[in-house]
Amino acid sequence: SHRQNRVALSFDFPFYGHYLRQIIVATGGFIYMGDVTHRMLTATQYIAPLMANFDPSFSLNSTVRYTDNGNLFVVQWDKVRLKDREAEGPFTFQTALHKNGTIVFNYREIPLLVENINSTEHPVKVGLSDAFMAFLPSQLSDAKQWTIYEYHRVEIDTTKIVNRSAFEFTPLPTCLQHTSCELCLTSNLTTGCGWCNTLQRCSDGIDRHRQEWLDYNCPEEAKGTCEDYNPVLPEGSMGPFNHSSPGPPNHTGITENTAIIAGVVAALVLLVALTLLAVYYINTHPTVAPPFYLMQRRTNNYWPSMKFRNQGCHSSYAEVELGGHEKEGFIEAEQCC
């Protein structure tokens, strides 16, 4: 049956411009690259040398193994057989993830043409895919739901997958790699990039940060220029003050400002003193109600968990919810195929 194992990489692997440290290796001939694990791992955000309904439990010789040397991560599906078609023979293939983002598919034994593999019980895919998650109004209520959008996919011509064949994917530059407004808007490596000064991020708006890009009004900010965020002051000007009326200094204004500043400082000193007294009281009286209340607030996590439901696309992998979140609220998420 379907199994998956979460693996921590020893290096940051760039996938569509996003640097990932954790991935999920699945027995079904693919690696899941998503941030949020959900019931339908096979739908989007994958690296699939040969996604199919493999059953490693058929034989002790069937294994899925991986290795990581700090610069290269390799997963090998070794002598795995298709469920209910074990007599067709074993498949042996691997995926290599290089630290620079290059991805290589290697095929040693392919006993069956890929186009002849049945996709009824499990999708059959070869290639790459990435997606972003965004809020959409629910058709059933006023609440919003997380929806997954696949924004890019690379598919291989499966007729070319034969014994001793290999495919190499070289990553293209992305807007996300630019760390300044100037590089974002002037680089010859990328096109369509915009700079969001609020997030200090370069993007074309179509990546995993799509929802945040919209929430912070980045589409409007991206229409501006770098000069909008770094205004050039007139020569000889020291700041935004108006010095058009020269004359003797206003001592009355200085005295009033000094009194205001002194009042603010006194208030801050009083607030700090009260805080220190409260902390001292809590530490010396640990059984009274206030300390327990503070401890409860510190330890509780009020982020909602996300719960996805299957819309009947393909056979599903075991659901894994976000770790470390209290189950006070659930967001039902539609799963697109």
Automatic annotation (TrEMBL):
This protein is called Plexin domain-containing protein 1-like
* Topology in the lipid bilayer: Single-pass type I membrane protein
Q: Which UniProt keywords apply?
A: Glycoprotein, Membrane, Signal, Transmembrane, Transmembrane helix
Q: Which family does it belong to?
A: Belongs to the plexin family.
> Where does the UniProt annotation locate this protein?
Membrane
- One GO cellular component term noted in the UniProt record for this chain: membrane
Q: Which residues cross the membrane?
A: 259-282
Q: Which residues form a coiled coil?
A: none
Entry-linked Pfam families: PSI
Q: Where is the PSI domain?
A: 174-219
Gene encoding it? LOC115410779
Q: What is its main location?
A: membrane
